[in-house]
Description:
Order of helices and strands: HHHEHEEHEEH
Amino acid sequence: MLAVYATCVALGFYVGARRELVANLHERAVTAEREQALRADAAREAERTRIAREMHDVLAHRISLVAMHAGALAYRTDLSGEETAQAAGVIQDNAHLALTELRQVLGVLRPGDGGASAEPPQPTLAQLEPLLAETAGTGTTVRLDVAGLPGGDASALAALPVTSSRTAYRILQEALTNARKHAPGAPVDVRLGGGPGGLLTIEVHNGAAAAPREAPPGAGVGLTGLTERAELLGGVLEHGFGPDGSFAVRAWLPWEDDGEADEENR
């Protein structure tokens, strides 16, 4: 009887301990998911705030140019026909660029920052070569493929709208940073394609890490912010691991030509 009683007590303690362990593990999992969701929300909000600040500076510059040249047309009656046409062209170009920038920032609220200084102009794909050289300087082999661009030449990227070019630069920058951080030494392939009137396609693919590495705190938050930025622009960004342990970031951003942009504005 004592043996049976002792066995029942032991089983009771064991079942209770197991239930407590399962409950604790479930609570940990729920807490981890909640914290990850909070980090993702914070990343989206931070990216929206940064876009708002960035667009504020760009729009202020564009509108000031429009106002200056419009004032010249209003008060300068001695301008020749060529000078008048040139001023009107500047107004038209900057008004179009301002509207393009405004489409990206609509719906993004900029909180008061207590008079903080404005951020400097953000880089675009015009700085693509220095960006790739910076990564190559860390010992990572970077291969650039621009065969999908018009004429197979990276100079075609000059026709890309500023907002798309800026977002594309940020996507490449984050993807290259993640490749250096999580798979140091693995080669990285960068592919760019598309053309005016369609989409700019971006793909950054890096091989698997030589040895398993623990992800640093906050891993994935940068890509969450870039996903938000791409969606605000009207594009799509996706990322994930391949079956061989490699990692790829792919994005599709709008590449409007002048004709389509003018038609949309009308």
